[in-house]
Design goal:
With 221 residues, this protein is an all-beta fold. Strands 3, 5, 7, 9, 10 and 11 form a 6-stranded mixed β-sheet that branches. Strands 1-2-4-8-6 form a 5-stranded antiparallel β-sheet, with no helix packed on it. Strand 15 and strand 16 form a beta hairpin. 27% of the residues are buried.
């Protein structure tokens, strides 16, 4: 397998390892200056898209000076409970000017859970019609059925349960899709969540957001 060099100006970057066992672990962020200018006063921070899945004990570090082609390794301790996405951000100065940098999302796999939510997709919808949320569950090892619960956050701020589904048995690498239908009554943004549970609690979650409008013919009338 070929090593992938990740690059977004001004940094070449890498987060290792890409897979963790559950528990308190260490992640290492490598940053390399690929520009022709010195980078100074770098405030480096790590962020988790779901702190219940992966949380940082120490989320920031500091680099006083990073010269062209120079690289640094920064270590961050985490509590790893389930697979999540992470990203790094940097505030600093280049040629005396302030700059800000965010890495793309980096998937960090945490081993041990029987399954994870591979994706969630919410179709377009209008008031007076309906939209559909579909979550794909992927087996990480052979497992019995799990519980998948869809929730919705409405434009007015109400948090409503849509459906609770018992998933079928999954083997490692096997996928299954599950759906929930919604008849929206309000115009605005809807956030639909999919939460996956085993006997010990929640093991994964994901969400999608859509904007719902009134039907055009209803506006004309």
């Amino acid at each position: 397998m070929l090593d992938v060099v990740r690059y977004k100006p001004p940094f070449e970057y890498e987060l290792t390892p890409e897979t963790l066992e559950k528990g308190t672990r260490w992640l290492t962020l490598r940053l390399k200056n690929k520009e022709d200018d010195d980078l100074q006063y770098l405030d480096v921070r790590m962020h988790s898209m779901d702190s219940l899945h992966i949380s940082f004990h120490n989320h920031n570090d500091y680099i006083f000076l990073l010269r062209p082609e120079e690289e640094r390794y920064l270590d961050f301790q985490v509590d790893a409970n389930a697979t999540s996405h992470l990203y790094a951000s940097v505030h600093g100065r280049r040629n005396g000017d302030k700059f800000h940098w965010d890495s793309p999302l980096l998937r960090e796999e945490v081993l041990g859970n029987p399954a994870e939510i591979e994706s969630i997709f919410v179709s377009n919808g209008e008031i007076g019609g309906e939209f559909e949320a579909e979550a794909t569950v992927k087996g990480m090892r052979d497992s019995e059925g799990l519980k998948l619960v869809f929730w919705m956050d409405t434009p007015s701020g109400k948090y409503e349960e849509l459906s609770e589904i018992k998933t079928r048995k999954l083997s490692k690498g096997e996928e299954a899709a599950y759906k929930a239908k919604v008849k929206p009554k309000e115009e605005g943004f809807y956030t639909v969540y999919a939460n996956l549970y085993d006997d010990h609690g929640r093991i994964d979650r994901d969400h999608d957001i859509i904007w719902v409008e009134r039907r055009r013919n209803a506006l004309i009338e």
